[in-house]
Design a protein that fits this description.
Elements (H helix, E strand, L loop, with lengths): L11 H9 L9 H11 L7 E5 L5 E5 L9 E8 L2 H19 L2
Antiparallel strand pairs: 1-2, 2-3
């Protein structure tokens, strides 16, 4: 199996993710699934996530280096729906991946 190298041409999958993320049965294309898998593996430090608040809002979170340490919350990024939050995190991961692994 070849190693997936994400580049600018893969930006078209942001549109596919936006369309399919709201579906009850999330069924991405093979290429989008490869991109999602690529974002999920690797070191956990500084990986984006979502924190659910008591009032059903989602806050952007960043995982710490070591398990058990405090998760860093970015309260300037608050979302009313899970779909909106997941799209934001996907775009953020995509942009960061392109910036770090040129």
């Amino acid at each position: 199996m070849t190693r997936l190298l994400i580049n600018q041409k893969h930006r078209k999958f942001i549109k596919e993710f936006n369309k399919k993320i709201g579906n009850q049965k999330f069924n991405p294309s093979l290429e989008l699934q490869r991109i999602l898998n690529k974002f999920r593996v690797g070191k956990k430090e500084n990986k984006y996530g979502l924190h659910l608040e008591k009032d059903r809002r989602y806050v952007l979170a960043v995982l710490p280096k070591n398990r058990g340490e405090k998760i860093k919350l970015y309260r300037e990024h608050i979302f009313k729906s899970l779909k909106q939050a997941e799209i934001f995190v996907f775009k953020r991961r995509f942009d960061e991946y392109l910036r770090l692994y040129k």
